[in-house]
Amino acid sequence: MRGTNAALGAAGLAGFLALGEAVPRLGLVKAEFFPPTSRIAGALGRELTDRAFWAALGDTLTGWALGLALAVGAGVVAGVVVSVVPYLREATASTIEFLRPIPSVALIPLAVLLFGTELRSVLLLVVYAAFWQVLIQTVYGVQDVDPVAEETARSYGLGTWARVRHVLWPTALPYVMTGVRLAAAVALILAVTAELVIGAPGLGARIAVAQTSQAVPDMYALIVVTGVLGLLINVGARTVERRALAWHQSVRGEVAV
């Protein structure tokens, strides 16, 4: 089954690449705006031999990784505290619902005013966008704790931290891992967007330079790189999720009776 799925995926990718080669060569679109796949592949090969490309890739991954780590740490801690402390969930609900829908890109002027084109501008946007993914999932996970299990732990004399470790955390972990996986994708989007708009060092800034200099094949090659990077991050996040939840029935494939 896995072999069949892999073959179908490869066939779909090959068909997409062939379509990208044929459309501009048949004159359906102008090649100067949408170059054939072969030209994009050639530009990608040139990028891979350029040290500046690898430096830009490192800058993007640095902003993504640091921002994601800060967002996950803050989101998990805040989600647990908000859910465990009495009345704090109700006291913060309106504030969370007000701040969460604000698009991170709307904070770009603030980031530029505070930090210019430094890495801290990218981190501000990445952390703000990814934080809510983790926070909301953590809150949902904590609220899903079985009250009977909670009362049983109390009756056995478990303290607060023991209940968090043995009762709350195992229940919330599947939700947290979902939030981390979503946050990883959002963090990459915001990292590239910040670089593209603000001009912070990274793949986004390199795409902007290629666009303004009319290096269209190079621009598409860099866009392909960001797509591949997003795919690898998603696969990596799913792998970590499966390993962290190896005990959970959703991973083991068991059916609850």
Key features of this structure:
257 residues; globular; 11 helices; ABC transporter permease subunit; single chain; mainly alpha; 80% helix
Major β-sheet annotation: none
Radius of gyration: 23 Å
Counting DSSP E segments of at least 2 residues, the number of strands comes to: 0
- Please bin the fraction of helical residues: over 70%
Structural class: mainly alpha
Q: Note poorly predicted spans.
A: none
Overall mean pLDDT = 87
Shape field: globular
How many distinct helices?
11
What is the CA-CA span between the terminal residues?
27 Å
Q: What string gives the helices and strands in order?
A: HHHHHHHHHHH
Strand content: under 5%
Assembly classification: single chain
Family: Belongs to the binding-protein-dependent transport system permease family.
Protein name: ABC transporter permease subunit
Transmembrane segments: 64-86, 98-116, 122-142, 182-207, 219-237
Keywords: Cell membrane, Membrane, Transmembrane, Transmembrane helix, Transport
Question: What does this molecule look like?
Answer:
Residues 57-241 form the ABC transmembrane type-1 domain. It is found in: Cell membrane. By secondary structure, this protein is mostly helical. The protein is built from eleven helices and no strands. It is globular, with a radius of gyration of 23 Å.
